[in-house]
Specification:
405 residues, Herpes Virus-1, three-stranded antiparallel sheet, 18 helices, disordered N terminus, disordered C terminus
């Protein structure tokens, strides 16, 4: 028995099990923020920060959500794995996934060279290439990591569906592959931001801008006697932030749970709505900072700084709070437990602490109540008595005090 366990300190695995929802939230936010920094870097060094956040967030998610002690049968039961099976025609196209991925990479390169206004790799290209890479690598990932690979693949499927496919459809509709189509800004950002600002007392207008397909939002700052027009392009609209966070949240829910219950539908809807509202509020706050703080001396620098840094932090904060509330309502039975047999479930319950759900081991002092429930001694001391049968600490010690080795 280690000194740490004798002293009663919580081990790392026990902490993950006891605070699972909090750890999941932190991992989701870290990984999503990292992907956001990789796709839309704020500075030259932010790409490295983004890569670090993705690595740490992904590692924490893997440890907290997807332990490696499950059989292949139970791992393959999530909504995400069933979605992948449907998309691959019940597995018939699985062997072709690497070839499909390579084909997407070649198609993106050809698109840039022949149709795009610039051959350089843009944000949409990066999303498509990363999605294609996940297709290529999917079949080479060991089966014990199947939930992780499902999460990555589902994430990029949703991300491409939100950000890349609509752009290609819009450009094909307009028969112009050399221009940016800012439909999201016109339909889902500019009017809503304008309405919120009007309610807050900021007079503004939304209009077309000469030489741009994006909408412009014009207002006059309190201490800056000149009208200011903010052009809400695709890059500035926050669509990338919305897509990344929404995709990560939906992919997590789909790869973690097996039943598409009413609560799951509500959870997914609220998650998407939270990401969208956060994006609109981000733009509102950026304009409000310029409206209230910029002067002739600052020359709109406050609003530009808010656009580059504060907007991203505001989005992170809002999503963290909203997702934290949402995860409180997530069903507590994940996919790998729902698909286990009744005997397996009963055996698992008998060998786990009925308070923290961590496995009972001889290395950690344990106690068995007269009702049959087992607990870590430390966990039971934190309660007034047995949560299962209601016996209190004042009851006969023979009832609450048999050691469970």
């Amino acid at each position: 028995m280690t000194k740490e366990r004798r002293s009663g300190r919580m081990t790392f695995n026990e902490f993950l099990a006891r605070h699972r929802q909090f750890v999941v939230l932190i991992a989701l936010v870290m990984a999503s923020a990292g992907v956001g920094l990789l796709l839309t870097p704020l500075s030259a060094s932010s790409a490295w920060v983004g890569l670090s956040l993705v690595a740490v967030g992904g590692a924490v998610m893997s440890l907290a959500v997807w332990p490696k002690d499950r059989t292949l049968k139970t791992i393959r039961s999530s909504l995400g794995s069933r979605l992948i099976r449907v998309l691959t025609l019940r597995g018939k196209l699985s062997a072709l996934m690497p070839a499909i991925g390579v084909g997407i990479i070649l198609a993106d390169i050809a698109y840039n060279l022949l149709l795009s206004a610039t051959p350089s790799v843009q944000t949409e290209d990066t999303i498509a290439l990363l999605g294609a890479s996940s297709l290529v690598a999917y079949g080479f990932v060991p089966s014990r990591f199947s939930r992780e690979r499902d999460f990555v693949l589902v994430f990029f499927i949703i991300l491409n569906g939100l950000l890349v496919v609509p752009l290609l459809i819009a450009r094909a509709f307009y028969s112009d592959f050399e221009r940016s189509v800012d439909l999201y800004s016109w339909a889902a950002v500019a009017p809503e931001v304008s309405a919120v600002l009007s309610v807050l007392g900021v007079s503004n207008s939304v209009h077309s801008v000469t030489g741009s397909t994006a909408p412009g939002l014009t207002f006059t700052p309190l201490h800056f006697p000149v009208q200011v027009t903010v052009v809400i392009t695709t890059a500035c609209s926050g669509i990338y932030s919305f897509g990344i966070f929404a995709s990560a949240f939906v992919a997590f829910v789909l790869t973690e749970y097996a039943q598409l219950t009413r609560r799951i539908w509500i959870l997914l809807g609220l998650g998407l709505f939270a990401a969208y509202v956060a994006n609109v509020l981000r733009m509102v706050v950026i304009v409000l900072i310029g409206y209230h703080t910029d002067t002739v001396q600052s020359d709109l620098q406050n609003m530009l700084i808010a656009h580059s840094y504060a907007g991203w932090l505001i989005f992170l904060g809002w999503i963290s709070v909203f997702w934290g509330v949402l995860l409180k309502f997530v069903p507590q039975t994940p996919a790998f437990e729902e698909t286990a047999t009744s005997s397996t479930k009963e055996s698992s319950r008998r060998n786990r602490c009925s308070i923290c759900s961590v496995a009972m081991t001889p290395a950690i002092p344990g106690t068995r109540c007269a009702c049959g429930a087992v607990y870590h001694t430390r966990c039971l001391l934190e309660r007034s008595g047995c949560p299962t049968c209601g016996r209190t600490k004042d009851a006969d010690l023979s009832e609450l005090g048999r050691t469970a080795g």
